[in-house]
Amino acid sequence: MSFAMEPFLALILIGFLPSEVWRWLGIVVGRGLDEESEIILWVRGVATALIAAVVARIVVLPPGALASIPLEVRIGALGIGFLAFLLIRRSAFAGVLAGEAALVLGALAFGV
Amino acid sequence: MSEPPAADAGTSTSAFAYGVRIALTSVFAFVIVFTYIGFGAMAHDYGFSVGWAMLSTALQWAGPAQVILVTGLGPGTVLIETAVAVALSSVRLLPIVVALLPVVKREDSRPWQLVVPAHFMAVSVWVEAMRHAPALPRAHRIPFCNGVGLTLVGLGVAATAAGYYMQAVLPALFGAAAMFITPISFLCSTARNARQILEKAALALGLVIGPLLAFTQVAFDLLWTGIIGGTIAYLVHRYARKRSPAA
Known about the structure:
Distance between the termini of chain A: 37 Å
Structural class of chain A: mainly alpha
Largest sheet of chain A: none
Largest sheet of chain B: none
Distance between the termini of chain B: 19 Å
Number of strands of chain A: 0
Number of helices of chain A: 4
Largest interface: A-B, 80 and 106 residues
Oligomer: heterodimer
Structural class of chain B: mainly alpha
C-alpha cells in the first residue's frame, strides 16, 4: 500500500488530517483562555521557540534541493539575511532578499 | 502605530478588505509566491497532478509538511511514518492557534465559526494577524484574519499551479532558493514582531536548542525545543518583570 494508494485519499489522510488536527486542537485549547493570562504568555514563548526550531532545522537538516547547498553557505546566508534585517530598518523584506542573494552567490561560488 | 478606530467604525467587509490589502503588501505575498512556485515544480518532479498539488496547498497550508508528503508517498515508503512526520513537522500550528484565538475571538464566537480562520493559520498569517489585529475593534479581527488568510492561500494555490507548469524552465538553483525562503522569512518576521524579552529570548533559545536536539536525533525535537525554549523564555520574562514591573 505505497504508491498504489489513491493520491487524493493519501492527501486527505496523510497530508491534511495530521496537520489540521493541530489547528482543531488549538481551537479547543485556545477558546477558553484570556488574552492577558500567564498561560498565554507561556504559549507565545513556546510558539516563538518552535518557529525558531523550524528555522534551525531547515538550515541544518535541509529537505530535498536545499541539501545540495553546503552547510556553511546555508548558515552564512541565514546570518547575512538576519544582519541585513537588523541594519535596514528592521525590514523583513530586506532580510529575505539579502539572505536569498547570499545563498545563491554562495552556491555559485562553491560551484553547486 | 495609529490609534485603534472606534468600535463602530467600518464593517466586517471593510475589515476583510483591509486584511486583503495587508496581505498583498506583506513580505509574505512575495514569500508565499516564491515558496509555492518551488513546491509546484517539485510536485511535478515527483509525478503528482497539478490538481493534487493545488489541493495540497489549499488543504495542508503548511510548507514543510507538504514537502514531506510529496517526498514521502513514493514506492517503499511507510505511509504511517510519513503521516507521523507530517504531524511532527506541523506542531507549531497548535501554539500559534492557541496564542491567536484570545486576541481575535468574540465572547459569542462558537467553535465552528473558528474552524475556517484556524485553517488559514500558518506562521505567515499569524505574524500579520498578531501585528495588526490588536489595533482593530474586536468584532472586526476575525474578518481581518480571514482576509489575510484567504489572500495568502489564494496566492499560494495560484503559485503552485504556475510553478507546476514552469518546472522545465526554472533555473537549477530555484528549488533550493525556494526552500530557503521559509527559514529566512520566519526568522526576520518573528524577530520584527518580538518586542518583549519573552519573544526575543524564545527566538534565541529555539535557534540554539533546535539544532542541538536535531543533531543528537532526539525524538520529537521540534516539540521539545518549543517546550524547553518557551518555558525558559517565560521564566526569563517573569524574572525581568519582577525586577522592573514596567517591562
